[in-house]
Design goal:
519 residues; alpha+beta; six-stranded mixed β-sheet; four-stranded mixed β-sheet; 15 helices
């Protein structure tokens, strides 16, 4: 069997969080099976973990080069594990992989969250007299849960997160070989060398994406989330909707621009959404202070903050709720709304403070595991701090978070940098006072229109001006006046030449910017 993740990525700790990896210098079945039991119980619902045998550790990090294990011990270890697996209550079978690192042989035991938890294991699995106990992970240790922890563990029985459940509606043909292969290549998995055309089922099984049932197996929900071109066929409204209000939702709710809904696999939705925001919304400003050589660069919205917020909206959403992720762009903020809200284990005070939201329960642990391996998320409880840090570094106000007592929704408002507010959306006549007198009445009207909606095309402007002209002359004559697109294009060209207007972005998805000429 081939390890789904690249061994170097695993040993480096970049792809998997430190408390989900345990290193063992040699084969010690008593300690190893206590850890297997703890990972299988997955008390904090973080996605199980890995035990790497043949590697020394220091402060939770692998020491290189690895020490390795004697290859002659592998077959006896495999035989021993068959018997030890039978001693777990109920039966549990981890996956064993033989890997190479630094020219040495090492063993990797991958422990997925058990479907029949909670599990017990003998404290000393090799002893003749066996005392069974539950085990859970506490930080980087495997411990016996006591009192309320034990009761909470028992209550986890049959509470499998939605993304890790099998789905009868998902078929092998719904999994895109291209998306799956692209992922395996990005994470440098040796599974990328296997033909998905002939061995799709084998690869999904090795990636723990199949749920065993009496009839055979079912594909897990997370496989469709990650590797289906149209996961919205299985999870209604699995899409992102973007709406722009150039004047603000409250000021003029009728003036809006709706972007075509963004669909696809979770990585595709993230990529398409960030591409749109980066191309059409994010803007840069450079200031050159007179008293220093270095320039100051800042953005209306730092990309990393938006990236973290978009990823979190899909990672933490409830995929059983038939509502899309909604992104609203206004002059003062970008708001991202998803359903449902933060887990009830997070205090409301922490939500209101907009700082770290550390949860004891993760709604989509497997999805988070995949996103982390793609470097799309950093780790547990790091999303909101990352957003706030990026805003602070950019000189922007802090983001605000909102939910209700029932935790039915999660809304984050990411504020625009103060220097950009009104600059792109509202006309400041003082800005162009030196040249405004030279403009024709029609050009003044064009500037007013663009200040209200910078996304207008020449065709739309000509239509609106024609309507206004016709309305003004309707009392005197029944003749309709039309201003051609070509005339408006000439006006726009002159305004650009005078340094009043600039075009940012492409012809179809770009927008007009009124240039600030004040010193």
């Amino acid at each position: 069997m081939r390890l789904p993740i690249n061994i170097e990525e695993l040993l480096s700790g970049r792809a998997v969080e430190g408390d989900r990896i345990e290193y063992k210098t040699g084969w010690n079945p008593d300690a190893i099976y206590r850890t297997i039991c703890a990972f299988a119980n997955d008390f904090d619902e973080t996605g199980g973990g890995y035990i790497v045998v043949g590697v020394q550790e220091e402060n939770g990090h692998a020491i290189r080069p690895v020490t390795g294990i004697d290859p002659n011990l592998i077959e006896p270890i495999e035989k021993d594990m068959v018997g030890y697996n039978n001693l777990m209550r109920p039966y549990y079978q981890p996956r064993l992989y033989i890997e190479e690192a630094d020219g040495k042989t090492i063993l990797v035991i991958k422990v997925s969250p058990g479907e029949r938890r909670p599990y017990k294991v003998p404290d000393q699995i090799t002893a003749k007299q066996k005392t069974f106990n539950y085990y859970i992970r506490y930080n980087s240790s495997s411990i016996v849960p006591r009192d309320e922890y034990e009761r909470e563990l028992i209550n986890l029985a049959n509470r499998m997160p939605f993304d890790d459940r099998g789905n009868d509606d998902i078929k092998l043909t719904d999994i895109s070989p291209l998306l799956l292969h692209d992922y395996l290549v990005k994470v440098k998995s040796s599974l990328a060398d296997i033909s998905l055309t002939d061995h799709m089922e084998d690869v999904l099984e090795q990636m723990d994406l199949l749920e065993a049932v009496p009839e055979g197996w079912r594909i897990k929900n997370v496989a469709a989330m990650m590797f289906s071109e149209r996961p919205d066929r299985f999870f209604r409204q699995a899409q992102i909707e973007i709406v722009l209000f150039p004047e603000g939702r409250e000021k003029n709710p009728n003036n809006l621009i709706e972007v075509e809904p963004i669909r696809g696999s979770v990585p595709q939705m993230i990529e398409k959404t960030l591409s749109y925001l980066n191309t059409n919304i994010i803007k840069k400003q450079i200031i050159k202070p007179k008293d220093r050589a270095q320039s100051i660069t800042f953005y209306n919205y730092p990309y990393q903050a938006l990236e973290e917020a978009v990823v979190n909206s899909l990672y933490h959403r409830d995929w059983t709720i038939r509502e899309p992720v909604e992104i609203t762009v206004e002059p003062e903020r970008i708001s991202i709304l998803s359903f449902s809200g933060p887990n009830h284990t997070i205090p409301m005070e922490a939500v209101r403070s907009g700082q770290s939201l550390r949860s004891r329960r993760y709604r989509n642990r497997r999805l988070g595991e995949f996103l982390k391996e793609l470097d799309l998320t950093e780790g547990r409880a790091t999303g909101i701090p990352t957003i706030q840090d990026e805003l602070q570094a950019n000189g922007s106000p802090v983001a605000k978070i909102e939910t209700d007592e029932e935790r039915t929704y999660f809304l984050i408002d990411i504020p625009c940098h103060p220097n950009f507010i009104k600059e792109l959306f509202v006309l400041n006549k003082d800005v162009v006072k030196d040249v405004i007198k030279e403009l024709s009445e029609r050009q003044k009207v064009i500037i007013e229109m663009i200040s209200a909606n910078p996304f207008l095309s020449a065709k739309t402007i000509s239509e609106k001006i024609s309507e206004k002209t016709s309305e003004k002359t309707s009392e005197k004559t029944s003749e309709k006046f039309t201003v051609s697109d070509r005339t408006i294009e000439n006006d726009l060209a002159q305004l650009k030449k005078k340094g009043i207007l600039a075009r940012e972005g492409g012809r179809k998805e770009g927008k007009w910017v009124i240039i600030n000429k004040k010193e």
